[in-house]
Amino acid sequence: MSTALTRTALTRTAVAGGAIVAAVTLGGCGSGIDGSATPGAAPIADTGTSVPPSSSPAGTSVAGTPVPDTSAPATSTSSTPAPDGAASAALCPTAYLRVTLNRSAGDADMQGSHLPLVFTNTGSRSCTLRSAPGVSYVSGNGGQQVGVPATRYPGGAKVTLAPGASASAALFLSSAPQKSDCHQVQARGLRVYPPGNTGAAFVPLPTTTCSDGGPYLTVGSVRAGVANTGA
């Protein structure tokens, strides 16, 4: 598996999961993305703050096992892969990360939506991330997980985030749940476990997903920059 994850690889896994429920019909993209907050419901947690986990933080990797990285990464001064031999820096903890979706850099096709999942260092020291986050849909005020977690494509270089710097992971959201007769559920958003962490952040994303079949999400490794869609 190449370090630079391609959009084709991200898309293929989620689309294959959707086909288990029903064949995806051709037509509009039907991404189900709505950036507005859920009416009458308080957020599960502010973006970037910890929420109680309801499942394995790592999700499912393409090799069948989670691959969190908790080793001491290397330091640089920006959101770039750390050079060999650089001084040691700590893993970026969830408490010092703001997790968002970069909709302005995303796009959609007939199979779903491609969005950068952005991690911004809100702390006062440089820290590092490596590999793929854990991602799942959640619903209700208690953040109940809906369906299976995202398929993860782990690996990649360690990325150092200076204070205020950001990196992103390519997230694919299949549109199959909007176009099949599965058991549909209204999700409130995403539970995201940054790489190497067991504390999660909540990202608002009201949409329709399925509690059966799937996975309907795939996510790649964190890379430098805020516009990584897997292209």
UniProtKB/TrEMBL annotation:
Biased composition (Polar residues): 47-63
Region named Disordered: 40-85
Domain DUF4232 stretches: 92-222
PROSITE patterns: PROKAR_LIPOPROTEIN (PS51257)
Bias (Low complexity): 65-85
Domain of life: Bacteria
InterPro entries: DUF4232 (IPR025326)
One Pfam family, short name: DUF4232
Record's protein name: DUF4232 domain-containing protein
Organism: Amycolatopsis panacis
